[in-house]
Fold each of these.
Amino acid sequence: MALAPEAGREQMVGEASAPAEAFGVVAGMRLGEALSRCPELRLVPPDPEAVRGLWHEVLDRIERIGGAPESECAGAAFFEADGLRGIHGGDLAGVLAATRRSLGRGSRIGAAPSRFASYCAAREARPRRAPVVVEQREAAGFLAGLPTALLRSRPEFGPLPEVLDRLGVRTLGELAALPSRSVAERFGHPGLLALDLARGRDTPLEPRRPPEPVSERIELPEAASGQQLERALEMLIARVLARRERRGRALRALAVSARFVAGGTWRETATLRIASADPERIRLALGPKLAELPSPAESVALEVEAFGPPAQDQGRLLDEEGAARHARLGEAVRQARQAAGESAAMRVLDVDPDSRLPERRSVLAPFVDSTPKGRHR
Amino acid sequence: MNARSSKRLATPCAARVRVGECGVPVALGGAAVDSVREDWVVEDRWWTGRPVRRRYFELVLEDGRNVVVFRNLSGGGWFTQRG
């Protein structure tokens, strides 16, 4: 079996079971190809809400043994083990045993000096078997034989793993042997980061912040759509804003989710450009998301994912009308010139941006507050 | 445009460049050149009485800086320029 494509998303299967993998079905494969490889494939509707709930439970368990987990996506979490040795028997084995007891025998656990190396170690580990432990001195050797395709686990690399593969750099050892300067010239910052990972180094962990669950759900009496959904959204926003846990703070990021009549769930996140407690502004940000609801829903919910500053502390400059802002800017320019002369406020003016001679492309000209838009930056 | 109150950006600055056998820079000021990333020739304004002919080099210096220098093929001399 495999997870069916999410409603309204690309037609690709999600995680696949071991028997499906035996037929060559892997996560991210196009549905048509998956079915042609495994005609008996059973597709299970994805339930991102349930996954989120279960994964939070896993992270809670890690926190209960003292860990501070970092987790970018459900399925993989990382935490520093060194600080926990003292409370779990004094050594790494004690920490790993506590982790196993907390997460259950089905989990894959790996320990290594860096995030990426421990991810690779956990992939090598098998459920119900001992965790794979890679010591500092073994890290480079351990990583050397592994494929560069493992870099796909880090979304910041984009197409880099495929490019490395096309260039014949197939193992992390081959990547680690390349000179830093050449990698930097060819691939820039992502290349240097990949090189660090291949050599057993990584960026520091960023543990999750303790969650402050503020969510509201509304059961829909029948297959609601259009205006009914808008009203439901308005009500959810009003309820969330009225929650005591908000403590006067503006909202930065929210998630709107739905449970479908036919089974399965759906979830979309919206991050506000400016943190706000204005119901109208929030409705404008979330309305289009809810309009993308791919199937009739029996309930919709709204959850705060991140809070902003206290609502009354928001700057007002950006909220003002353009004319008032322009007038203030003009006054600021006049005052600066009064104090420091004409050159206090200049602008870059593109005069011949396509010229092959750099000195002919732009000039620094006095800032004029009535400048038409477009030709300056 | 008011010439007194406007100023061109990225104007060339005279530079002290030491060159190797093929005319390729090996040092800029006191810093040795680590590698030459790219070189190219610009010929422009040949239709005027003041044609421009330059050979540009994009250099990585040993101190980590990335700079662009050119040799003026018409009047001679080396210059740095920010693009």
Amino acid sequence: MSGKKWTHKSLIVAVGLALALLMPAVSAAANTSDTSDARAGTARYHRLDAARAAGYDLLTDAAGIACIDNPGVGGMGIHYANGNLVGNPSVDAATPEALVYEPQPNGRLRLVAAEYVVLQSAWEAAGNSGVPTLFGRSFELIPSPNRYGLPAFYELHAWIWKHNPRGMFDDWNPLVSCAAAQS
Amino acid sequence: MARYMVERIFPDGLAIPVTDDGAATCLGVVDRNAELGVTWVHSYVSDDKRKTFCIYDGPDPESIRRAAERNGLPIENITRIKVLDPYFYK
């Protein structure tokens, strides 16, 4: 009898614990309204020609490499950046400074992520302190010198169009490959 | 913006060729959805291709229905959903 009661209490505790664990995750999902804005703002860029027409140009690193990866960790893909947006200190989920595409075996590029970029100098010149944030996440500072030959900048990736096992906002996605890249 | 699961039934099976025409068909859906503030995130297709479970962002179910009409797509059911996944964003 007492054993049965204990089991019943254990069940209640277990259910309560499970709900407690689940609730933050569901609450965190409310944050997806921002990622919804990001998807709505970038859906038309599934067409690369639309992205180009909107001012997004191919970005290569200082060595001329277009498809960025980190063997053993993951890939990023090929970045198309909008120079006008990069020079602007504002951050808007619907208008990322860069679009990230993964080269496909058929030669096409698949839109996989958005990258938000703010030059540190522009950010500070606008009177901001701290670091930019979006989706409840802080940007990462990429100091200069860096592989892109850019001045120091803040950046945040959002894998809004392809699942990333390392997390929605990790820089590297192990499911993204540069194997099909032309260069 | 809310998220919805849209269930569709295709009695004869969904047939989108893996060709340029097929890609154009999918991108056409994206364009027509955008006119109504609706975003197709992705879909899951049953093995027999007769049922799809489509994840959409949109302002309300009516917008989802209007987008489906414009795209000539059937709707069996629309359910407002929230995401639960292994990530804790904050």
